[in-house]
Design a protein that fits this description.
The chain is α/β, with parallel strands linked by helices and about 170 residues long. Helix 1 packs across helix 2, helix 3 crosses helix 4 and helix 4 packs parallel to helix 5.
């Protein structure tokens, strides 16, 4: 069985999803529709103060309402607050399942390199095949450049931490 993991992103102040997050979901569905035996995990437990719903709740609702995906085909990780917690919580969920063959992790283009480093590290003892697929960025210009710069810095710190520990 294949698991499509769609990573969440902070909701807007009013609780709506960003274009970045919608693009991730749309790409996840595109992948989901290619396979017979599959499930989706949506991640994100952050709440906006003005919203009663987590990222994963909004994501699941979108997948059901927009694409008619059956509720029992979508698993929510509504506890994670960042990419590292996403990977750890997804591993815990998947370890309880049988016949898993592959994870396909979906995130935005600017984020996917760090995602692959984190998931490869957390899933290093797993026998699952791992793929990482990027969705279109829902941001551009200075905002996108700032995100890319933040990702580069985070990757440098992450690689140092993971591989230079004594």
């Amino acid at each position: 069985m294949k698991i499509i993991i769609i990573l969440g992103e902070k909701l807007k102040k009013n609780g709506d999803m960003s274009l970045n997050l919608i693009n991730r979901l749309n790409k996840g569905v595109e992948i989901y529709n290619k396979y017979e035996n599959k499930l989706i995990i949506v991640t994100g437990g952050r709440f906006q103060r003005s919203s009663d719903f987590s990222e994963s709740f909004q994501m699941k609702k979108y997948l059901i309402n927009t694409f008619n995906i059956e509720s029992n085909k979508i698993i929510e990780d509504n506890l994670s607050q960042d990419t590292i917690e996403n990977s750890k919580n997804c591993l815990k969920i998947i370890e309880k399942m049988k016949n898993m063959s592959e994870i396909i992790v979906v995130s935005s283009e600017y984020h996917i390199e760090r995602v692959s480093i984190i998931f490869n590290y957390i899933f290093k003892n797993s026998n699952l095949n791992k793929k990482y697929i990027s969705s279109k960025n829902g941001i551009s210009g200075k905002i996108l450049e700032d995100h890319r710069e933040n990702e580069r810095k985070a990757i440098d710190k992450l690689l140092f931490y993971l591989y230079n520990k004594k």
